[in-house]
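name: query_chain
kind: protein
chains: 1
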Amino acid sequence: MLVAFAIIFIDETRGARIITQERSFFGVLRTREFRLRGSRIATDARAYARHDHPRRAQFVGPIVERQPLTYYNPRTALGEAILAGVTAGSTSNVALIGLGTGSTACLLRPEDHLTIFEIDPAVVRLSAEPGGDFTFVPICQPNRRIELGDARLQIAHEPDGEFDVIVVDAFSSDAIPAHLLTREAIALYLSKLNPRGIVVLHLSNRNLALVSEAARRARSKRPYLYRISDPFRAARRLLLGGLAASVMIIANTPDALTNAAAQS
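structure:
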């Protein structure tokens, strides 16, 4: 029994302690908590993995827990694209397809409205409810709305012209929901945008090449922009940098891409 306990809760290869591990219908969810080295900001962080590929993390502790990390750093292609779609001077309505740890919530302002589309109840419990392992959503968007179920079916019920930004962030694992990247799906997202709105497809994936497929889908529909950012690290501060990120930004008109293009 002691050996089993050690195997389940201690990850010796990464020097991390596994605090949550469960299998849902959609795969294995695992949260590791580990002590940082070389950081002057926090002593601990939590990383979330699906299919054992941790690409999402959060610092533990007041103030620092609001800092989006990894792909979601404000200086990555993904962070910049989301920020470009948030309308300055007015409240923005943002849809997030694929919750993950909920890092996107802390890229938004308190006055913005966030609707989350997530198929896995275990992920919602982990990342959006009080007492979960991650607090991005509870602290940055406590009034968020969650639509549980298949995102393509759920977003179809939203009013046309409803959103300023639709972030499709469901493609980072090795088992992607391909029906969220079809021509019909992209056309559906575009119908839910207001005239200045954008769709942000997060295409970072270390197992699959999604960019050419996404471009083929987008090219026949509307104007689009592809952006990529290299990995970077803040000096002496572990995790404060960003992972290499690739995004495709699609809009109904070229004018709607203006802010995103200015970030290039």
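note: Residues 1-13 have pLDDT under 50 and may be disordered.
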